[in-house]
Amino acid sequence: MKVPVYLDYNATTPTDPRVVERMLPYFTDHFGNPSSSAHPYGWTAAEAVKQAREQIAEALGAQATEITFTSGSTEAINMAIKGIAEAYAEKGRHVITVQNEHKAVLDACGALERQGWTVTRLPVDADGVVSPDAVAEALTDETVLVAVMWANNETGVLQPMEAIAEIVRPRGALLLTDATQAVGKVPVSVEHVDLLVCSGHKCYGPKGVGALYMRRRAPRVHCYPLLDGGGQERGLRGGTLNVPGIVGLGAAMAIAVDEQPSEAARLQALRNRMEEALLAALPDLHIVGRGADRLPNTSSMTFRGAKNLNLMMGMRDLAVSPGSACSSGSGAGSHVLLASGLTPADAQASLRFSLGRFTTAEEIDFTIERVIAAAQGAGLALRDAEPAS
After folding, report:
1. Quick check: is 326 catalytic?
2. DSSP H or E segment with residue 133
């Protein structure tokens, strides 16, 4: 077994060797620019991009013409939010999102707010779930866009996307979902949304490539480009296409969706085994979002009475995350956990464990031992063993 044990798959995933093999020729032999339409090098590159676009569309239940390639989810989110705002400003200047969204969504909405838009940030319950009724109450005739993530990156909690869509669509607003963490882990479809973003490096593809889905009919979504340039991607995103990355994204999504059912069952069993063992040993342990539907691979644990950074010092042979990208000096903790009602102290006592394709049962057993030892070393009490009968 290799140490440190990697349990930070929600931060990034290793590129699957099958994906690397598919990408390699486009760094060497097939290095052409897909916009070079006058010779075979360009034709080969363009065909590879076409195939990847079709793979991604099939994985999402979309049409190939509805897929736009980007440098990742952050660019896709910014393109969707800012491009939709510019295209639909005459309809209204109101956007709805959720307090525990990824910072890319919250910050893009904040940028609109500085331009005079109204942004409603909906609260969530103790599990981190937004109420469809709250969405309904927030909608107005001025609402242009509703942005709700499919699965939370820190807790793994799933939002009720179908129920939200049933409320949003009749009111004439568009629904955007950040499905970056969901693709390949749970079934994901564009059936109920108007815009969807995803990224290669969260599903065993390369970093630096992502995709934006935009509905082309019933209704057709109009979006202004974030990047102007040579007219690539039907004028929606200028710049030379990242052919190896796009090939890798297509291959990664095809594999992830194909293996999703069996992999989800395997990871959920390992995740539950870890949680149950730690809950049995640590009376002060709390699992965030345990009462809600979650990604099968994700566990956000609060070790009440400890500091997450101290715990991590005691488990250096585990690669886990504090679950927050906040600056170390802010003193506030994760906005996701605070939105769910955790105190700042509890938010700073939380760690995210995210399992993945290469996680083994041996690694989970090792993790259980290391976490219990680190918790004890941080001064947390252990649960008394049951008396022998």
Report:
1. yes
2. helix 132-138
